[in-house]
Amino acid sequence: MANRFIDKIERFAPLGADDIECLAAATSTPRKFAARRDLIREGDRPGPVFVILEGWACRYKILPSGARQVLAFMMPGDCCDLHIALLAEMDHSIQTITPALVATIERQDMDAILDERRAVAKAMYMSQLVDEGIMRAWITSMGRRQSIERVAHLMCELYLRARNIGLTTESQFALPLSQLLLADALGMTPVHLNRVLKALRLSGTMTLERGSLLITDPAKLIQIAGFDENYLHRRLRVAS
Amino acid sequence: MANRFIDKIERFAPLGADDIECLAAATSTPRKFAARRDLIREGDRPGPVFVILEGWACRYKILPSGARQVLAFMMPGDCCDLHIALLAEMDHSIQTITPALVATIERQDMDAILDERRAVAKAMYMSQLVDEGIMRAWITSMGRRQSIERVAHLMCELYLRARNIGLTTESQFALPLSQLLLADALGMTPVHLNRVLKALRLSGTMTLERGSLLITDPAKLIQIAGFDENYLHRRLRVAS
DNA sequence: CGCTGGATTGACTCGGATCAAGTCGAGTGG
DNA sequence: CCACTCGACTTGATCCGAGTCAATCCAGCG
Questions:
Q1: I need a surface site. Which of B26, B122, B164, B234 has the fewest CB within 10 A?
Q2: Domain residue spans in chain A?
Q3: What is the pLDDT of residue B239?
Q4: Which fold has domain A4-129?
């Protein structure tokens, strides 16, 4: 049975059979969650590290006004901050988007892995650095990109991440995110997002429908987004 | 001689005399940099970890259009990602804002410290988690806050961070950031930022001039910002 | 003392928000 | 099998926050 977390981590640094076994053991008893279920809420005391094995989740914040800002999308293989247990309180919530299979790693186990398994620790730190890079890209998008560029950029990011874990076929992949959720991630209104998606569709760039994204003109999408193809993958130092 | 980095780190976890000595040694040969000098550029191979001892710096990205997005402000005591050396290439640049005193910690030294000094490692991980929290707050600001709220929120953040390291007097502190730089951080135009600052000044909330921020009505500033006072400090788990 | 880069202000434009109706499709129950 | 409902998606009309363009103003300084 595939473990998408191990698959992903393994891409960052070569792991020994015992490393893999150790990770497999740590994530061997995942739990099933329904869609739209909070795994942890803002204000909660952080517990174990969450690892998404199947399905999608997101980090988000709710503002006093009631507005929601999605901070990150988590797809199979993703996990949350390694040292999260050091904080007294979550500053954001994490919620499933689709039904999901989620493993948890307790703090001591996590610490033990990071201490004793250097290769695993290295791979996981790299993964975390990539996630930070994604956050920086989001800040850049929200601050300095027009809405159509922002949408295109996010789609590039999600496509590449999905491809990295083998979830794409050709230039298409399952993207189970409602327009409302995407709008909350992109800092725009659902109405305007809808218009932007229409424009992208009419220009023959990409089509998002029935939970699936089809990129009809990758070059154009990348050009609209001003996407730096290096940003998610080639930046990683090859085994040093 | 005060070492603002140690002062800051020490607030996160109790350190032994030997821990402090070790950090002091690691940052004992800082270098002076002029203002507006890149410490490292996007595309560069990451080197040592930078530690700002005196002065201000910022992380930023330049878009193909030439627009700049500032990703973070670094003040005395701040340092960049601990595991930065794992990446093949920087995805952003770091530049001094004012003349600055910057120490560097080589990769092996950093690894050794994180390995052997558990208290130091813990404190530094907490510091990094706080920085990540700040990034999430920035994403939230850019996505879901009006410009005046965004400005107020950033000022609250900077004030608190400055206060934490003892750089404030009453409700005032040195803020050597030009309106242009602030605009690039807030995702707005300098012209509009100027108007927002004027509005905040006229409403008796705060005044930013000649490199110094004076908060005349803290309660009002917090209220405009929708600032969660917990977000930078009380979230830290007290020595566990 | 003129130069230069930031700060300030005004006039005008525009991207995206808001408000308000629909439309469409998957369930659900009669 | 069809009416009913509910949530997500669409579309049109209008408004407004923030961007753009273009002058000044001003302080530090070579």
A1: B234
A2: 4-129, 146-225
A3: 34
A4: Jelly Rolls (2.60.120)
Minimum distance, in Å, between the CA of residue A29 and any CA atom of chain B: 27
Token pair of B121 as six digits: 């490692």
Count the Cβ atoms, other than its own, within 10 Å of residue B64: 9
CA of B35 to C1' of D11 (A): 52
Residue found under tokens 């005395």? B76
The partner residue sitting opposite A136, judged by closest CB among B68, B86, B91, is: B91
Reported as type and span, the H/E element at residue B137 is helix B118-144
Residue with tokens 């409403």: B203
* Cβ pair B186:A143 closer than 8 A: yes
Distance A140 CA to D10 C1' (A): 29
Structure tokens at A236: 């990683």
What is the band of A230 on the pLDDT scale with cuts at 50, 70, 90? low
Topology (CATH level 3) of domain B146-225:
Arc Repressor Mutant, subunit A (1.10.10)
Phi, psi for residue A24 in degrees, rounded to 5: -60, -40
CB contact under 8 A, A87 and B138: no
Q: CB less than 7 Å from strand C: which protein residues?
A: A 146-148, 187-189, 191-192; B 178-180, 190-191, 194-195, 197-198, 209
What's the gap between Cα A152 and its chain centre? 16
Q: Is the pLDDT of residue B211 over 60?
A: yes
Contact B184, A139 (CB under 8 A): no
